[in-house]
Amino acid sequence: MDKQKIILSVILFFVTISLQANSAETKKVIPSVPTSKIMVLSLTGGGEEKSTMKSFYSRAVAVHETFNTLNFEKNELLEYFGQTTSTGRQAKYFKYKDDKLENKDLISEIKKDCSKLNPLLHQILGMSEKEYVSVDQELYNQKGFKGPASKAAIEEAFKHVTSTLTKNDYLIINLSDHGAKNNLSITETSWGIQLDQPEEFITDSQLKKYISTMINNGVTVQLNVSACFSGGFNLLPFDSNFCSISTQDPHMIAIDTEFNVDIFKNLLIYGDFLQSYACELANENINLPMSNLDQIVNNWKESTKNCITNSTSTSLVQSQKELSRALLSKELKLYFKQSFLDVFDKCANHVSKRNELLENLGEVINECIKEDEKLSEDKKRLFYNQISYKKELEKLGANPFAIEAQCFYMKKSILKLLNKRDQKGKIKENIHEIEEFLNTADLDYLEKFKRALCCLGYNLKTRERPSICK
C-alpha cells in the first residue's frame, strides 16, 4: 500500500507540474486584443449660391461636438465644411430674419390668427429676407476643420485614411447637404450628395470605390447620410464590414428635422449608432429614416418571391444548417429587442401627442393662405390646390420631378411645423418587417444582418464590438 501511495504521489506531482506549465504557456500565447483605431470623416457642403442652410451648419457642429466629447483626438477627425470661392474658402450659413416660428402653441395660435403662419409660407416661397452668418473663424480656426467640402478634400481624406487605418479599424463617414436622384448633372449614377458648389456632387458609385478600398483592407465603414433621397446610399452592395443610416428613403426629398442632429447627440448616451438610431427613429414624424438593415430585409423579400424551397429535405447537412439558422435567429431576436426595440419603445413614450389639435387644420391653413395679401394667386394655388396645379403644369410639359418636389416640399414644410405624425405608421411597418425577417429568413441573410448589426452596434465609448459579435 505504501508503495502504491508513493507511485500515486509521484504521478500527481508530475500531472500538477504539467498542468501549471500548460497554463503558463497558454497565458503566454494568448495575444492581447489591440484597441481599434477609429477615424471620422465629415463633409458638409455649401451647395447654396452664397452659403449653406443653417441646419447643415448645426449638424456639422453637432457631429464635431459629439466626437470631441467622446475624446476623439484631432488627428482622428477629418472635417470639411462650406464652399470654395474665387477668393478661397467660405464658411457661411443663412437664416431668415423673420424666423420666429419655434412656438409650441403655434397650432392653436394659427387657428386664431393667420398672421402666425405667414412667415413660414414666405420662407417656403423664398420671399423672406435672408441673413448671412460667417463661421469661418469658428470652424476652421477654433474647431480645426480642414477646409471646404470639395471633391479634392474627399480624395485627400481617403488617401489619408487608407494609409492610416488597417484591419479591424473603423471609419465613420458623415455626409450632409442637398441630395439628388436622377439629376441631369449626374450621368453615371442615380444618387448624389452636393458638395461645395451647386453643380458639384459625390455620387454613390464614386463613394463605392472609396469604401471598397477600405473594406478590402479589413476596415469597417459606418456611413451616415443626411440629404434628400439619402436612402439610395443604403443600396451600396456591401455584405460585410459596412453599415449605413440615412435620414430619408431613396425616393423622397427630406425636410429638416432634429433627427440628423440628435442621432449624434444620442451617441453620448448610448455609445453606439444602433441605439441612437432607434431612439431618434421613435421621435421622427416627417421623414422616413432607414438603414442598410432595412435594405437587407428588402433584398431577402425580393429573393423569396420566386424561390421554391424543398421542405422534404432531411439530409444531415440541411438539418445542421436549419439548427444553425434557428440558433442565430434566437440570438439576433434577443439582441435586436434589447438594443433596438426596447430603446425605440422607451423613447416613443416621451413623444408628445398633439393630433387633437390637427382637426380641420387643413381648412384653416387654406383660409389663412387665401387671406395672405403678399401671395399671388399662382403661389396660393401651390399650397391649397396642389393636385390640380400639378396636372396643369404637366400638361404644359413642365418637369414632373420638379413639380413633385416643389409640391411635396411645401406640404411637408407645413406639416413639419405643425408636428403631424404622418410617417409613424410606415416606420413601425418597417420595424415589423425586420421582426418577421428575424423569424423566417435563411441562414445566409441572417448572417448578413448580424454583420450589419455588429457594425451599427460598435461602442464608440469603450471601442468594443457588441457581445454577440465577439
Describe this structure in words.
There is one protein chain. Helix 10 packs across helix 12 (316-348). With 470 residues, the chain is of the alpha/beta class. The protein has a domain at 38-91 and 135-303 and 331-352 and 424-469: Rossmann fold. The chain has helices at residues 2-29, 54-69, 106-112, 118-124, 136-142, 151-164, 204-216, 259-265, 267-270, 273-283, 292-305, 316-348, 361-371, 377-384, 386-395, 400-418, 424-440, 443-456, and strands at 38-44, 52-53, 77-81, 83-85, 88-90, 92-96, 130-134, 170-176, 179-181, 191-194, 201-203, 220-226, 242-246, 290-291. It has a six-stranded mixed sheet with strand order 3-1-8-12-13-14, with helices on both faces. The model is unreliable at 10-34, 352-359, 385-390, 396-409 and 417-421 (pLDDT under 50). The chain starts with a helix and ends in a 14-residue tail after the last helix.
- Report, as a whole number of angstroms, the end-to-end distance: 52 Å
The CATH architecture of the domain at 38-91 and 135-303 and 331-352 and 424-469 can be named as 3-Layer(aba) Sandwich
If you consult CATH, what is the topology of the domain at 38-91 and 135-303 and 331-352 and 424-469? Rossmann fold
| Number of strand elements | 14
The CATH first-level class of the domain at 38-91 and 135-303 and 331-352 and 424-469 comes to Alpha Beta
Output the number of helix runs.
Answer: 18
Helix content percent band = 40-55%
- Overall mean pLDDT score? 77
How do the strands of the widest beta sheet line up side by side? 3-1-8-12-13-14
The main sheet comes to: 6 strands, mixed
By secondary-structure content and strand pairing, the structural class works out as alpha/beta
Point out poorly predicted stretches.
10-34, 352-359, 385-390, 396-409, 417-421
Q: What share of residues are in beta strands?
A: 5-15%
Shape: globular
Q: Gyration radius, to the nearest Å? A: 27 Å
